[in-house]
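Re-run with default settings, no changes from the original entry. Doing this only to confirm the output is reproducible before filing.
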Amino acid sequence: MAIDSSILQSKLKQFFGFDSFKSDQEKVIRHLVDGGNAFVLMPTGGGKSLCYQLPALVMDGTAIVISPLIALMKNQVDAIRGFVESDDGIAHFLNSSLSRTQIAEVREDLLRGVTKLLYVAPESLTKEENISLLKEIHISFYAVDEAHCISEWGHDFRPEYRKIRSIIDQIQPAPVIALTATATPKVQSDILKNLRIQDATVFKSSFNRPNLYYEIRDKVEPEKDIIRFIRAHAGKSGIIYCLSRKKVEELAQLLSINGIRALPYHAGLDARTRAENQDRFLMEDIQVIVATIAFGMGIDKPDVRFVIHYDIPKSIEGYYQETGRAGRDGQEGICITYYSYKDIQKLEKFMQGKPVAEQEIGRQLLGETVAYAESSQCRRKLLLNYFGEDYLEDNCGCCDNCLHPKTRFDAQEEMSMVIELIDTLPEHFKIEHLAGILAGVPNAMIKSYHHDELELFGAGKDHDVRFWSAIIHQGLVLHFLDKDIENYGLIRATDAGLEFYLHPEPLMLVEDRTFSEGDEEDDEDMAAARGGGGGDQILLSMLKDLRKDEAQKRHLQPWILFSDPSLEDMSILYPLTVEELRGCQGVGEGKARKYGRPFLELIARYVEENDIVRPDDFVVKSVAPRSGNKVYIIQSIDRKLGLDDIAAAKGLDMNDLLSEIEAIVATGTRLDLNYYIERNLDEEVVEEIYDWFREEASSDSLEEALKALGGDYEDLEIRLVRIKFLCEVAN
């Protein structure tokens, strides 16, 4: 069907509120409307969804959008319904989350012909009843979103995606548009073959995101570094990715007790909690979401200012897609990844037990990630080269390697040696194999091919395998070498490479960076991180005198203002701002602002008068050993759930739950238990225990309180009122 350009422009404005198309959007839409197959390669934030949403709204029939994002289908459907002032039936989703009644509604709207967009999970598409239903309607086209899931060489392979073509053939023919934000030439070839749309017009936007800053950091004390970074970017939204659910929970908890509004997100949480946590992030109730890769696909938050990878991703595709969630509005986007070789060894271990072919693919993808992380080349140049795009600038000015370049050396001899080796071998081999030959490493594979007998075996033994792998990777970026697209990972020399070998000239390259093994901190280091001991004893004495004076002015016990451990941290860290004061043990936001000013003024005078050089480091509030349920407890109390219900949900008795709550409060976190106390304790009892803590207690010691009050009140009453007092007065 022919549609005039002015009509497309007016519909773009009418439905989506945009005055003009981005990148190749208009070309893609026109091609699809004209009945052509299309392959769209467009980076995150480039506007892929509009490439099928707008044509679906202007064409006859229903567009079938095949997507793996079940959790986000409702969001997409709600968005379309919001764009279009008509029957809500204009967009629907069909997946396992629907009830029978809801499925009947979808069926009715489809048969009435009012539905323009139907989002379907690939698993739902294979069901006989759905195939029969779709045979009864007119289909405008099929959109295969996240099409990289088709390829085993993609970062998120889904076997059910490989069945899509056969299902389409069963239903009815119609144009197919495949869309993805990440696809290497190999993955692109796989997608086109599997969907049998080799005739598709390929629309490829640049992968360059000039507003994103890329950095790889050595994984030494990453938690402390992350907290420091987030505090330096106060008020800015960010995502932190971890590989395991356990680490997600631990890190979210650690951030929370250090005054950073953070929540976890992973597939192990129930659907309601996941949805609530995501909504709170989108609505900016929290600053940071800590997540596995289950979070983020399809999320529409343009102002994510930083994406942090606590663990190195399994592939460059995954890394690119996840970092791409930063700065989608074209403004600042900081992408930081922590790397140690120990993480790579863990990932390799996870692959054991998988089919051999899958292990081989996984190792290849992981090898590319290692090369990227350890490289000293421009990160933007490396990323774009991976996706088949050249970046011609020598220095992007927006990655760690370009801002802090390493010394270069003339590598013409080394590159010539690599090309000579590749050209003289009768078959093609992978990077590790070639590097092993030159480094003179007689492993089993090299011996099996008798490559330990080659003239070039050990010709570069002055360097190790890592060095030679780096030379080969830089040869790929320079197009002296290339990867065989059909046998991914096998290296061959290009015509440009052979020309360089015949006529070598100076070639300035950089050596790769070295990283730590990533060993865990020992107990002594952890103790130091928690503070305590070793402080400035003169300052500590002055702080204690000040605390006594301030307490008398306020008619409070001294410990209520700041505990001894808090003062000890101040004597180590010399905090000068409220933000820095919050880094001390047991000091939350409220306490720092309520009592902190005279202490900060004293420390500032002391630092100036004694020419104190303040430490760059700061103390991270640690998580008590028994606080594994901390985030859940905080969230549940926020929602005013009964303590009995919270305890039952986590398999705790009331005594254990109170211990958990006391550990949370001890870190400076404020909890509001008034709703529970008012329902379960007499007002007079609360008042009398509260007054004892205010007027007679010499510390916040629970043992002292139980000893002094235990004859008149139950333990539960004392502990609950103590928590209330600490939160309202001490915290």
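Confidence is low (pLDDT under 50) at residues 519-533. The longest strand covers residues 212-218.
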